[in-house]
Amino acid sequence: AQSVTQPDIHITVSEGxxxxxxxxxxxGATPYLFxxxxxxxxxxxxxxxxxxxxxxxxxxKGFEAEFKRSQSSFNLRKPSVxxxxxxxxxxxxxxxxxxxxxxxxxxxxLRVKS
Amino acid sequence: xxxxxxxxxxxxxxxxxxVAFWCDPISGHATLYWYRQILxxxxxxxxxxxxxxxxxxxxxxxxxxxxxxxxxxxSTLKIQPAELGDSAMYLCASSPAPFPNTGELFFGEGxxxxxx
Lengths: 114, 116
Hints:
The complex is a heterodimer of chains A (114) and B (116). With 114 residues, chain A is mostly beta strands.
């Protein structure tokens, strides 16, 4: 089935440690790819996006993501996590065969321990 | 900084009652979206407007849900009658042009509905 998968429901990392959140998709053509963050009580905010070109994209708040076509993945990374990064992170794709409608994964909740 | 405004932030209602949510997008944004986010899941598109016209409502349960954007600015999403399974966060988003041309949707803080 065509989908967006975030295999980790929860992740806990220590402040200052590195972070990687996984995202895989299963659509025919390479979709447009996004990561959004949702802090408690707030709306979703775009962290970064990939349309084409360089497969390593930089976003806001020190985040980056790498598109790997062979693995159908778009993993989010940050070299050093801050306590303020605790939030829920959503991978989203816009499959070209679905009129570029944005489809979200189920999200990964990030906890940061001091 | 311009924001997408939504109200109410929280709504508790009994099943079979009517509820309505309001959204005011960022000024100048022609495209408006309503998403539903059930606890533990990602947002799911309910309806998309381009100006005052509906361009996608394929996932909107039309027997009980309705949405309008009469003047192409603010929008209302209505549920009548509400059912227990409608308990969710209802998110409004806007963009200057139809996605993905601009690459970003701007989301409001959402309206959390609890149906008892």
